[in-house]
Model the fold of this input.
Amino acid sequence: MDQDIRKTDITNKVYGKMDQGSMSLYLNKDKIGKITFTNQGNLYEMGEGFEFDSDKIYRHDSNPPAQNQQLVDDCEFGWC
Done:
């Protein structure tokens, strides 16, 4: 069964640290990507589970499979 992937905007939670012509991107203390600055433009390299799109950074979250929802709470009445 495939899991649905949800994109969560984490742009405001990401910070960068300069490192010799590039910037490493971090979420909390985890490195999630890197921006390399070139004359032809910026090169975005994102780690697995992260995406740069339209000037925003997203984390891919997998939604757990839907649980079978019980239609009746109690079966003590004998009709479930």
User: Anything to note?
Assistant: Strands lie at 5-9, 14-18, 22-27, 30-38, 41-46, 50-53, 56-62. DSSP finds no helices and seven strands in the chain. Residues 53 and 78 are 54 Å apart (CA to CA).
